[in-house]
Amino acid sequence: MVQNLVFVEGGAFIMGDAGAEFTDEDGQKIFSFWTGDADTKPAHKVTLSSYSMMKYEVTYQDYDLFCKLTRHTLAREKSIGDPSRAPELAAAAIPWQDAKDYCLWLGEVIGLPVDLPTEAQWEYAARSRGMNVGFATDNGKIDFRRNYRGEGAPWHPQAPGTYPPNPLGLYDMTGNVCEWVDDWYASDYYQHSPELNPKGPDKGSQRIMRGFGVIGSPEFNLLYRRKVRPPESTDGAGIRCVVNAPAPVKAN
């Protein structure tokens, strides 16, 4: 686990869709927002404490071990043995509560404050500490078959680390599986989010996934917010945990 962590130094960034300047086909500079969704706006300042995040998404091998030791229900149990559920692939179809339980269980096992990332932590890390990019790839863009799946890629999630990481060293935060965050969803939360370490609304009826998955078009960039009502899940719901400690975690 410790070897699978990237330290994310805290700091301030503009969370949400602040838009960017692009060049059109005629070479003219235009300003455009990344999304057309009201719940990604307004862009607002957020300041985060330092933390560490899993370099890779949780695999079926890791998640199955947790389920067997804790008597949780195996994800996609009827598909065991199918190539789409190979042990090395990113685990999918995980309900939010089970994703939360996995992170907390892992924390108990290794003696560290492990949890699901907050939505702000997820976005800050995906954007390599707040860069104004649309995709969590090595260059902030989609280059099919080089840094993102393309023609001939399997329809199901792939092994974490198949494509290059973002500049911070995190893999698959665009594509592969959607990733649960800890927050409740509220369409107007960005309008009154606190600046320091926001954790989302105190209550709600839907939880949030970020990143979009295998069937998500590249048009769904990393600013999009997907919400699901627990205990429902989706085929693409996966897990990436954080360690809420202010300094890099050292291996014992």
Any chance you could write out the topology, listing elements then pairs?
Layout: E1 5-8, E2 11-15, E3 20-23, E4 29-32, E5 44-48, E6 51-54, H1 60-70, H2 96-110, E7 114-115, H3 119-126, E8 178-184, E9 207-210, E10 226-228, E11 237-238, E12 242-243
Parallel strand pairs: 8-11
Antiparallel strand pairs: 1-6, 2-5, 3-4, 6-12, 7-12, 8-9, 9-10
Q: Which architecture per CATH?
A: Alpha-Beta Complex
Order of helices and strands: EEEEEEHHEHEEEEE
As laid out across the biggest beta sheet, the strand order is 1-6-12-7
- Rg: 18 Å
Q: Which structural class is indicated by helix and strand composition?
A: alpha+beta
Number of strands: 12
- Provide the low-confidence segments as ranges: none
Describe this structure in words.
- It is a single chain.
- Helix content is 13%, strand content 18%.
- By secondary structure, it is α+β, with helices and mostly antiparallel strands.
- It has one domain (2-243): paralog of FGE (formylglycine-generating enzyme) (Alpha-Beta Complex).
- The strands form four sheets. The protein has a four-stranded antiparallel beta sheet.
- The N and C termini lie close together (11 Å).
- The mean pLDDT is 92.
